[in-house]
Amino acid sequence: MIFSSSLYAAFWKFPPVEVSCAAFLKPYVRKMLDIHQHGTKWYFNQRRFKDYVLFLGQTWEQEVAQLPASEIWLDSGAGSGLALIDYLDQYEGHVVGLSAAVEKWDKYWIMKAMQRYKGRFDFYEGLLETPMNQWPQLAQGSILTDIYGPMSYTHAPDLVLAHYAALLRPGGKAWIFIPQNGLNLFQAAVSRQRPGRKADQPLTWRDYLAHGTGLVWLEEHLVQDPYLPFNVLGKVLAVQRTSEPFYLPALVAQVKQFKFNIPPQRSFRLVDDAKK
After folding, report:
1. Residue-wise pLDDT tens digits, 189-205
2. Fold of 45-270
3. In which element (H, E) is residue 99 found?
4. Residue closest to 176 by CA, chosen among 161, 158, 191
5. Would you tell me how many other CB atoms lie within 10 Å of the CB of residue 145?
């Protein structure tokens, strides 16, 4: 059965007083109303700028707000570009959206926004994992973001991070969302119980970056669902580009579970530890 938003609104405005479950259902109805009214399917491709602030925090908001027109915010996994358009309505920086796929209706609004903010808004469609020489010559960014973008779905996070390093100028920073449901890192180590046999041990993102050069760990924080505060969505990893040549050890992926339009459960094992 399909329920329209008007029915949700009617329920919210005129809750059945004598139905004992009405109070229990109210928070969920409020959530559906908020999503309908603000168009914030922010789990997927219609996040607004305010949703980016919820994910990435006030430090990120302050830095992106202070970007001059000559500096660039690159948004990888930009979806329909609504957050970028919101930003252009308030601030002076140049924005570049990168998205694997854009729906036809969203393309129309993106084109309108590019005409309105000519010279300050660029948008490119394609898989980030493709060779960088197949991408347009993008100016290096001062800020890069990834919320439910390539890092939430990729089978090759080491390759994605290599491309992010190429897209950032020295000193540029990236804020990358890591989903709670699975982007786990492991490294091979000699088991104490069984000498000579390999055992996978947990590896933090900070430790993984320390195995390479070109990107340094800054900080990380947990992200909670604003509608369901006890539900942790994942963590945000903040990194900075250095002037060193980029290198990170390769990772082997294992996809444990995949559902359409939902970040899959994945784990990755460090296979090249030559730099250690």
Report:
1. 544 444 454 567 888 89
2. Rossmann fold (3.40.50)
3. strand 94-99
4. 161
5. 25
